[in-house]
Amino acid sequence: MANLQADTPVEFIPGIGPKRAEWLRSELGVYDAGDLLEHLPFRYEDRTDFIEVKDITSDAIAVQMKGVITDVKQIPSKRGSRLVATFKDDSGTLDLVWFKGAKWMAAQIPALQKVVVYGKPAKYQNRWNLPHPEIELEDSFERRNGRGLQPVYRTTEKLTNRGLASSGLAKVIRVLLSSPELVLPESLPSFLLDELKMPNKAEAMCMAHAPQNHEEAESARNRLKFEELLLLQLKLLIQKREQTHDMPGVRFGLVGTLFNDFYSNYLGFELTGAQKRVMREIRSDLNTGWHMNRLLQGDVGSGKTMVALLTALLAIDNGYQACVMAPTEILANQHLESFREALGALPIRIELLTGSVKKAARRPILEGLKSGEVHLLIGTHALIEPGVEFHRLGLAVIDEQHRFGVAQRSKLWAKASPAPHVLVMTATPIPRTLAMTAYGDLDVSVIDEMPPGRKSIKTVHRTDSARLSVFQFIEDEIARGRQIYIVYPLIEESSSMDYKDLMDGYESVSRRFPLPEFRIGIVHGRMKSEDKDIEMERFSNGTSQILVATTVIEVGVNVPNASVMVIESSERFGLAQLHQLRGRVGRGDEQSYCLLMTGNEFSKEARRRLETMCRTNDGFELAEVDMELRGPGDLMGTQQSGVPDLKMADLLQDREILTTARYIGNRILEEDGDLSLPEHAILKAALIRARKGRTNWSRIS
Ligand code: ADP
Ligand code: MG
Predict the structure, then answer these.
(1) Considering only CA atoms, which residue is closest to atom 23 of ligand 1?
(2) Which of 54, 118, 159, 667 could make a disulfide contact with 91, Cβ separation 3.0–4.6 Å?
(3) What local confidence, expressed as pLDDT, does residue 172 receive?
């Protein structure tokens, strides 16, 4: 082998071979030398000091000792034999013990030679022993500079059984890094290394795998993570430029009569500062002649829908159609109603298209869309189906993006040429760092201010033993004219247990709040959509005071008179969901409440979620905690999460590095959009290499 390059398959790395290469691929996703080097240690063991047998104390986490193994024996027992070796130094002896792999180990033990042993001491029958220690000949230990910080690698049982435990991986990586054949191309231009005071790539790799001290490890790792994040950001930012700067969009230059008429005669309130800022951002996007691809983040009730409506008016004023796509029928209906109400007598034709709009009713809508007589279409995913043709679609608003996959978004693009401007709205705030990666190709607007006069919702946690007082509280609120939601978890649509809980709950609530004084509604996913609508309508117009429901009401439902949200078995909900549910109340002028019910026992994580809910109403703060608890991938949902697989960096821990990478990436592209300047050649080459590799960036939308 002439050279060892980053893309040299692992089987050609000395000491690996085809069999182990197979295992490295399947167990760790390590395919080539570059992957192996990017498999950074997850911690370092301090192997600087030696102690003697007599000095072992019970607070020792791990001990390192020099001595000789004098005796090795198999001791048979009922549960398979164990291997015991006697280790001796100048101060005394202790047993090295193996319960697993005893046979294999017996052949490996270097008896009567000077060794270094390392492990966590345990006490058995009042004597110290070392179970499953690491053993190395003292010679080899000295030769490889075994003192100091030693890398510890993530590995698996299968790899461990094939000689690739952490120490085995360390050895392979050590040999690779010291190989004169290794060629590691630099990925960062020298002006960046100077500016950020970072080591070069080869130095950083050596320092990350074999650091002199913790500072060195830290600085090397930061440099490698920065490289990974910078390349990712460059790729996303370039993609974003391609979708905006390189993709023509309709220009909505005109602020026309509809917009102005609505603004001065129908709006009925002053936009918040945040809404005004976002409208400016959107209007400037729409006036560039390029395609808009913008994510609008804002907490429940922050007034995103109003922003969507104003943007739709801009489109219509400019002679284009707009559509709003909602994740559920309930929500689509609600949008329809609130848009109709808001638009009052303005000459705008709005239609609704969902799966349950029947053929006969569908035809005139489809015709109106094609002829352009329908200005605004509201619907579910039904509106991206084939057969739905627009005259001139200029704007697509996607509400609650989480439920729409990337594939669906791209179907929208195909509905018009040039592609319609896209405004994605989400009420589940995403931590900033995550937005920078999962939605790195979108521009992000944030509504971080609530309409004035909102009272913050009081949230408390109650266990089932407090149910009587909770019911009393509900009764008092109803007496004051308020309405109540009681939500049951329905984690899986098919789970009969969950339905039983819901029905039992409904019955006990019905018993406590009997007719004719009280009316109770119920909504869940197994009901026909007409029945759901009837129940929702009864609640919404105040006929029923209590609505027992599953999370079908999670998204978007708006009944301002509802002031109490009771969430049953709340320990089973995730933070984002709890926050969404809580957002159903606090929409009117009254003080609202959220009661988180649980049994007496729940996990530590559930406790943290409940405490966080009780402490804050701020969706962005909740999102940060959620990401800490669940990790970035899960936060976005496992499917099409849009969270890239990062090998070295971690979105949770490396927020600062990510922010720097984003900033630098933007700066570079502003100066040199296609990386054609000579000083950026290194970056361009690195991007091309990354694209060719298996770096999983394909899932990024
Ligand atoms: P979101 O879609 O972000 O959950 P909505 O747009 O549905 O929020 O707004 C929630 C409620 O607040 C609606 O009743 C809406 O009419 C009202 N609203 C929106 N913006 C304002 C504002 N600037 N001032 C007062 N009320 C507002
Ligand atoms: Mg909404």
Answers:
(1) 271
(2) 54
(3) 92
